[in-house]
């Protein structure tokens, strides 16, 4: 039987997330990096190791919502940000997200990892009057996240054709 890495990642996500949560909660200094300072300077790693780090990043960033650990442990300080609303580098992303990240509700819908690229599709409630559908795409190089893209879509009442895109995961009716 042959499994793709993204299939295996989806099967192992609950196990890896619980392991990472236990590891990060036992860290003695709040917000301290889980990995040593040289984490992003390590030699090339295997795709399996990248997938494991991707899963750990997803847990810290989207589930635990610890921006300092997520960016300090898994993101290069000089990573490339393609969202024009956010500055370049990890510090700029933390500064941009900090005011609202803890107050939003995130529901992960899909995620995957393949060939040094991790992606996650999720719903955000509490940031805008209508829910948002967001897809974040990250590129690893070699052992940490080096680049980020996103697609953000708000459910709009004036565009009935888009309602169907939100119905299957939001519980909203097309008759709204």
UniProtKB/TrEMBL annotation:
* Classification via InterPro entries: NTF2-like_dom_sf (IPR032710)
- Give the record's keywords alphabetically: Signal
Please report the name of this protein according to its UniProt entry: SnoaL-like domain-containing protein
Q: Does the keyword Signal apply?
A: yes
Tell me the first and last residues of the signal peptide: 1-22
